[in-house]
Automatic annotation (TrEMBL):
Keyword Transferase: yes
GO molecular function terms attached to this record: phosphoprotein phosphatase activity; phosphorelay sensor kinase activity
EC annotation from Swiss-Prot or TrEMBL: 2.7.13.3
GO cellular component entries: plasma membrane
Gene3D superfamilies found in the cross-reference section: Histidine kinase-like ATPase, C-terminal domain (3.30.565.10)
UniProt entry keywords in alphabetical sequence: Cell membrane, Kinase, Membrane, Transferase, Transmembrane, Transmembrane helix, Two-component regulatory system
Major localization listed first in the record, in broad terms: membrane
Highest taxon in the source lineage: Bacteria
Keyword Transmembrane: yes
Name assigned to this protein: histidine kinase
Length: 347
């Protein structure tokens, strides 16, 4: 039964292939016109037919050999195309042999498309896995402030300041999730303008005022006369993330402080957010911007998601600016935001 099915499929392929070959080679039939014209002239001139018949036989044999060879190549190409089509459905591409000329160029082009497709598919898979891990972690972490607010509401006398802190933590987690989604979308709704640096810093500090007061963290703003070409919403997101990290890892007994200032280095201008917190271990510094990396302090304090600084790096890259970290364990951390950028026309 299986052999009969295979024969039937093979026969249908052969008939379909031959009919397609005839349709594609119709133009070659035009080459018969000179032969017909030659025979007509031969007849008009009443020449002997024996040489003509001999010539026709030679041409017929040569034509048959050429057509058979061409048809064999055509069938082979059709089978290869069907093989490649089935491979494409399975998401693979593996040419059986290296072709030359135009066919080789097409095969190389298809191979390039396949490699690009595989790379994009792998990137998509990694991004989906990363997003799944992030939202799983996020769902667990946002439970903490929600549970804390629930407990505070059960108390006879509501602790408003503690409630505000837990609400701020929940808002920060939600804002981080929204920014995480927006970073992966094309366009990203950027509005680039030139802003006075001091106004952006003061706005970020104002948004974080309740947190700074609750944690008894002093903040010192030095004179910042520079301007920065950036997107206000995204730049504030980075500043608030950095201030939140600084508060998180500084003392809560009133000795914690944050200093924000500008400095020139290497021909560029930097905005520096410096704290006197617990600092970062030297071996952790090269990896602090990696997705999901918490480092020793993050694992010890159990207050780090490993996502905040990753989003800050992605955001600064998107804005065409830089971010770097300098730290000394036990003494504090400095985050340097590169604010130098060439002016250009903005529509």
């Amino acid at each position: 039964m299986k052999r009969e099915v295979n024969k039937t499929v093979s026969g249908e392929f052969s008939r379909g292939c031959f009919s397609d070959y005839i349709r594609e080679r119709v133009s070659f039939m035009l080459y018969l016109l000179p032969t017909v014209c030659l025979l007509f002239i031969w007849w008009l001139c009443d020449l002997p037919w024996q040489p003509a018949v001999y010539l026709l036989l030679v041409l017929a044999v040569l034509s048959s050999v050429l057509i058979f060879s061409d048809y064999s190549k055509y069938v082979k190409k059709r089978r290869l195309l069907e093989l490649y089509a089935s491979q494409a459905e399975a998401g693979i591409f593996s040419p059986e042999e290296e072709s030359r000329g135009l066919e080789g160029a097409w095969a190389q082009l298809a191979r390039g498309w396949q490699q690009k497709y595989e790379q994009e598919k792998e990137n998509g898979r990694e991004e989906r896995e990363r997003s799944s891990k992030y939202y799983t972690l996020w769902s667990h972490q946002i439970k903490t402030p929600v549970a804390a607010m629930h407990l505070l509401l059960q108390e006879e006398e509501l602790d408003r300041r503690s409630m505000e802190q837990e609400l701020w933590k929940a808002e920060q987690y939600v804002d981080m999730a929204l920014q995480y989604q927006r970073l992966d979308k094309d366009g990203r709704d950027l509005v680039l303008k030139e802003y006075p640096l001091s106004s952006l810093v003061k706005k970020a500090v104002k948004n974080m005022a309740s947190v700074l007061i609750y944690n008894k963290t002093a903040i010192h703003l030095e004179d910042m006369a520079a301007a920065v070409l950036t997107d206000e919403k995204w730049f504030l997101f980075v500043l608030e993330q950095l201030l939140g990290n600084a508060v998180k890892y500084t003392a809560k007994d009133g000795s914690g402080s944050i200093r924000i200032y500008t400095k020139e280095s290497g021909g560029g201008a930097f905005l520096v957010v410096e704290d006197n917190g617990i600092g970062i271990r030297p071996e952790d510094i090269p990896r602090v911007f990696e997705w999901g990396y918490t480092g020793y302090n993050g694992r010890r304090e159990k207050r780090s998601t490993g996502i905040g600084l990753f989003l800050c790096r992605r955001t600064m890259d998107m804005l065409g600016q830089t971010i770097a970290i300098e730290s000394e364990e036990g003494k504090g951390t400095r985050v340097l935001l590169g604010i130098s950028r060439n002016r250009f026309d903005i529509e």
